[in-house]
Write a structure and sequence with these properties.
5 helices; mainly alpha
């Protein structure tokens, strides 16, 4: 999903996108998507769970950073849809991690 989001960010024109198309934000998605795939290929449930937990925290931080003007807001240029997605995905990843405990 992350890789697709990053690639789509480069392909969809800004005037037709509901989310940020900033290049650093797209690269961020592609990079962490690749790491996520590598983690998935290890077939280690604990590592996959840790990645999801960590990325859920990153999602929630991005929402906070967007509203509080914290880094990397200047580079990622989040839009309201990004904030909503970060909240929903971040909370879901945290919920799934808690269920594994």
């Amino acid at each position: 999903m992350l890789i697709l989001a990053g690639v789509a960010g480069f392909l969809v024109p800004a005037q037709h996108s509901l989310t940020s198309g900033a290049a650093p934000y797209n690269v961020f998605h592609i990079f962490f998507g690749a790491i996520g795939l590598i983690v998935l290929w290890t077939r280690k449930d604990s590592l996959v769970s840790f990645f999801n937990f960590g990325f859920g925290l990153i999602d929630l931080y991005q929402t906070l950073a967007s509203y509080a003007n914290l880094p990397p807001k200047h580079y990622f240029l989040w839009m309201r849809t990004d904030d909503i997605l970060h909240i929903l995905i971040g909370l879901e990843k945290r919920r799934l991690w808690i269920l594994r405990l």
